Amino acid sequence: MERRKAFTPAAIEALKDGKHADPSVAGLSIEVRSAGKKVWQFRRRIAGDGAIVKMTLGPFPTFSIAAARQWATELNRQVEAGIDPRALEAAANERAKMTVEFAHALYMTAVREGRASRAKRINKPSTITEKLAIYGCDIAPKLAKKIIYDIVESDLTKLVLAKGKRSPVRANRLAAELKVFFGWASSLRGTEIGLTSNPAARLTDLKFAEAPRSRKLSMEEIGWFLRAVALEPKKYQRGLLLLLLSAARLKEVIHARSAELEGDVWEIPENRVKNSRAHRIALGPWGLSLFRSSGGWVFPSARTDGPQTSCGWYKSRNRVLARMSEYAGRPIERWTPHDMRRTSRSNTKRLKVDFETAEAMLNHAKKGLERVYDGYELEDEMREWFLRWETEIVNIARSAGVADSLGVPEPKALANIGVLPPWSRRHLTIKRGSPSTPSRRRA
Question: Mind giving me the DSSP string for 247-279?
Answer without folding.
Answer: ---HHHHHT-BGGGEETTEEEE-GGGSTTS--E
